[in-house]
Amino acid sequence: MIRRSRGYSPQPVNLKLNVDGIFAAGAELVNCFCVGKGNQAILSQHIGDLKNLETLEFYSESFERFKNLFRMNPVLVVHDKHPDYLSTTFAKNLGLQVLEVQHHHAHIASCMAEYNLDEKIIGVSLDGTGYGDDGNIWGGEFFVCDLSGYDRKFHFEYVPLPGGDAVTKDPWRTAVSYLYKFMGRNFLTLEIPFVQNLDKDKTEILLQAIDRKLNCPMSSSAGRLFDAVSAITNVCPVSKFHAEAPMRLENIASGMVETSYPFDFEEVISFESTFIEIIEDLKAGLTTSEISSKFHNTIVNVILAVVSHLRKETGLNKVALSGGTFQNKYILSRLELILAREKFEVFSHCKIQSNEGGIALG
Q1: pTM of the full predicted structure?
Q2: Is 49 exposed, middle or buried (0-12, 13-18, 19+ CB in 10 A)?
Q3: CA 170, CA 264: separation in Å to the nearest integer?
Q4: 3-state SS class at 122
Q5: Where are the alpha helices (DSSP H) in 184-237?
Q6: How many whole angstroms separate alpha carbon 138 and alpha carbon 116?
Q7: DSSP character for 352?
Q8: Is the pLDDT of residue 303 over 80?
Q9: Model pLDDT for residues 35-80, shown as the tens digit of each residue
Q10: Residue among 71, 105, 88 nearest 27 (CA)
Q11: Backbone angles phi, psi at 87, to 5 degrees
């Protein structure tokens, strides 16, 4: 499910919990909100990106319509922890009791709600952007959690995002950040097309911004990692629409390749050795299709390694997968197969979208 729009909405999600009177405001991108009526959670149709007045007005209008349609009287408003989301502002302005929820915990909870799970599980939440407890941008998260709380056990390593939100349109910025992190200024001498095509002046400004920590939020995002690999391989250095870089990278991956790249897995999951070998493969003239396949296989291996470690540590066997990265059919299909083979109980979205559109349910 990519978009649960008219025709699927307002079909309710039946729960074992009483959620009567709860209004969940949803995320900022591809927004849907959710209202609680008895033991049913009712997701709205696709609202869109809450970044302009017109969409916010449609959001407000749809909320009023849902209240009237389902005779729902909100008593508790739940919003994303991100303080700058328009959905957060809308929620706070209702003048009701409010509760904030961490973005990636909500992703996992939405998957749990779809299957009526209410117990401790291993949660893998991979997406582009979510406000973390430490004020950084999260997006490559491994939790041990239930519906009421979570313990962040592992995450992808942090990298600075020069220009903040600008990196979503310019994946080359994130690629530069990764290369600078792992190789210092030596990356500028790499004889690969991506580096040779870089604008020297723009790159220098970016490096100075990273050094001075000017508008360079730290991020553990899986989405930005995919952006960086897509840019380094010259598949998509500049993005013309949302998530174009990861989509193009997935599109060229071949199911015939079984090899992968190394990675380092301690307190954080580091992709330094991954990037070094990608560069070696580019120098050796490997096709972008093979490099993409090896990278995708690496992400599958990372998830398998972490959840296997957490099962050994906690004894938990149920794994929930959520977040926009799991719209990637290559990763999801391979991962479900491998985890099932390793005797995990795997839960991934079926009726609810795994992207931001499903987060209000969580």
Answers
A1: 0.95
A2: middle
A3: 27
A4: strand
A5: 193-196, 200-212, 222-232
A6: 26
A7: S
A8: yes
A9: 999 999 999 999 999 988 899 999 999 999 999 999 999 999 999 9
A10: 88
A11: -65, -35
Beta bridge partners of 141: 125, 155
Digit-coded pLDDT (tens) for 98-136: 999 999 999 999 999 999 999 999 999 999 999 999 999
Q: What is the DSSP letter of 78?
A: E
CA distance linking residue 94 with residue 50, whole number of Å: 17
Which of 242, 166, 168 has its CA nearest to residue 202? 166
Q: Residue 173: enclosing H or E segment and its boundaries?
A: helix 171-183
Euclidean distance between CA atoms 356 and 362, whole angstroms: 10
Name residue 174's amino acid.
T
How far, in Å, CA of 243 to CA of 285, rounded? 26
Sequence-distant (6+) residues with CB within 8 A of 315 are none
Question: How is 284-327 classified by DSSP, letter by letter?
Answer: HT--HHHHHHHHHHHHHHHHHHHHHHHHHHH---EEEEESGGGG
Q: Give the three-state DSSP class for 103.
A: helix
Around 281, how many Cα atoms within 13 Å sit in the side-chain half-sphere? 23
Residues 6+ apart with CB under 8 A from 68: none
Best CA proximity match to 335, nearest among 324, 321, 323: 321
Query: Which has the closest alpha carbon to 175: 189, 162, 158, 157?
Result: 162
Neighbour-count burial for 155-165, b at 16+ CB within 10 Å, e otherwise = bbbbbbbbbee
| C-alpha span between 13 and 15 (Å, rounded) | 6
pLDDT at 5: 78
